[in-house]
Amino acid sequence: MKEKETLSDRIMPRRHPFILFDPEKCTGCTTCEMVCSQRNVLKVAPLSASVAILRDEEKGKNFAVLCQHCRKPLCIEACPTRAIDKGEDGIVRIDKLFCVECGLCIMACPEAAPLRDHKTKGINKCDLCDGDPLCVKYCPEKALTFTRGKGFRWIKGLRWTVQLVSFLLLVMILVGTFCSFTAGGISLACPTGVLQNIASSRTIVLVGIASAFVLLVLTVLAGRLFCGWICPFGFILDLVDKVIPKRLGWPKFLENRMTKYGVLAGAVGGSYALGFQAFCTVCPIGTLCRSYGVQGFFKGAELAIVPALAGLEIGRRRAWCRYFCPVGAVLGIVATLRLVKIVIGAKKCKKFSCVQCAEVCPVGIIDGNLLREGVSPNIPMTECIMCMRCVDRCPYDAAKIRFRWQKGVPGVPKDTTL
Amino acid sequence: MNADKLDDIKRSANVYGCVECGRCVAACPMVDMYVNFSIEMSPRGVIKKALMGDDLVRDGNIWYCTECNAGTDVCPQGVSCRDLIRGLRQIAVEEDVSTNFNYCASCHNPFVPLPAETFVRKRLKSEPENVLDVLNLCPACRRENYMMRNA
């Protein structure tokens, strides 16, 4: 006998179809209910519709309860006769042949979207009219829109290109590379390296500080953009991430994001004690940068640090960046001054049906459970690596980049402060 | 009064037409839902007890039913086990005997029998705790809640 497949094993279509509802435009005319019931029971009987318009007379608001065709539908799990299934096209359908109208899907659905028809006692649930919803077609105010989410995720393509180009530049083409790179008047240096340099040589080199400044300014302007977009080791980790089939999890006692500040303090203190740049010899970014060029392709044992640390990826995505990287720690400290932030508006977010942002976040700082409760999560910008995966992925336009002083989150009118 | 009402319910559910074919048991989703499924809680058992005149109102077995329509759909005699159980539960609520309902946390409406809710919780046990909080709300309040947060 075949084992019961879990939801995560199911084949998921890349783009889920769903209907977007705009409460600002809806006038509560219930045309959608009428055309929907026309399809369900062949007569205009709003009670038999698969969509319900709720009204709040005090606030003057209308709201449509619609099936969101979740990515991991709870109704499928709850149905005792297994009559509900998500098709290959991403539409969640009730098979009327097996449905016994017990109503447990209504119980399981967080927004109670399957509706009980009190006339026929049946269950009506939106099936998107098999890809051509009538309610969208007939909505006079265009408050309902049928969509399959974003087709082309341009940030994703841009990020991979930038990562590849910077990897080639830093590792293959530029000799001396990111750790300290001088070409005429331009000089660049790793801030952690400069800190260690100062500690080890006990002299303050102004040129070094100035060259470290470039990266710090970038961090102030755009957060830890370096980690997500430029870092060559981060690129390797992202590539490793693509081939890892299953994550083993991470021991609880190592799950402390403050560890990397400890590593930074240790690196600087170690350099002071030993008299040379202690961490730079084992730094995965540095070894990568030094590995290619005039010194030869592999510098033997030194390069072994890269696969060893990339192996941490089996536990958690970007485990090195999350918990240990001292370069990220310096940038994280500087990122407290950053000018931009990432916000996720819980009002625009469709909560239960999605939480893709929490799934794709490589450093795991988006609290999907909080989002499901309807609270906009606070995203710590000291941890965020500005990869913008959440912004790219969100099909409801809830994740946005905002300036630090902007108060509103998407979906909330500007005059209300949050 | 109670006896009259009970008789009315039995008559309107057409209990006296039951031929004990057992089709309702074959269609009943409770077989998949409860491990302790037995003849006492099956639709045929409840109908039989109703015919024998047992005190079903104080019987715990009437609280397992999900009030689906499967048994009525397949019954050759048109016996509605759902109407029977619904009526019995109504009497139980009216007479204030020990009921087995889950009451809505917001409007205190008895909206689902506890065994059915336990089943749903068991099926959704992989979900985080705060998502399952909505199971304490009746569907109407849940929609209301959802509207308040989104509109």
**Structural shape of chain A:** elongated
Report the biggest beta sheet of chain A as strand number plus sense, adding barrel if it closes: 2 strands, antiparallel
Record the strand order, biggest sheet of chain B. Answer: 1-2
Quaternary assembly = heterodimer
pLDDT < 50 stretches of chain B:
none
Provide mean pLDDT of chain A, rounded: 81
Q: Residue share in helices of chain B?
A: 40-55%
Descriptive terms for the model:
heterodimer, A: 418 residues, alpha+beta, Alpha-Beta Plaits, 3 domains, two-stranded antiparallel sheet, elongated, B: 151 residues, mainly alpha, Fumarate Reductase Iron-sulfur Protein, Chain B, domain 2
In words, what does this structure look like?
The complex is a heterodimer of chains A (about 425) and B (about 150). Chain A is an alpha+beta fold. Chain A has 3 domains: about 5-145, Alpha-Beta Plaits, CATH 3.30.70; about 155-315, no CATH class; about 340-405, 2-Layer Sandwich (Alpha-Beta Plaits), CATH 3.30.70. Helix content of chain A is about 35%, strand content about 10%. Chain A has 17 helices and 12 strands. In chain A, strands 1-8 form a two-stranded antiparallel ribbon. In chain A, strands 2-3 form a two-stranded antiparallel sheet. A two-stranded antiparallel ribbon of chain A has the order 4-5. In chain A, strand 9 (about 180-185) and strand 10 form a beta hairpin. The longest helix of chain A has 20 residues, at about 155-175. The radius of gyration of chain A is 27 Å and the shape is elongated. Chain B has about 150 residues and is mostly helical. Chain B folds into 2 domains: about 1-95, Orthogonal Bundle (Fumarate Reductase Iron-sulfur Protein, Chain B, domain 2); about 100-150, no CATH class. Chain B has a two-stranded antiparallel sheet with strand order 1-2. The radius of gyration of chain B is 17 Å and the shape is globular.
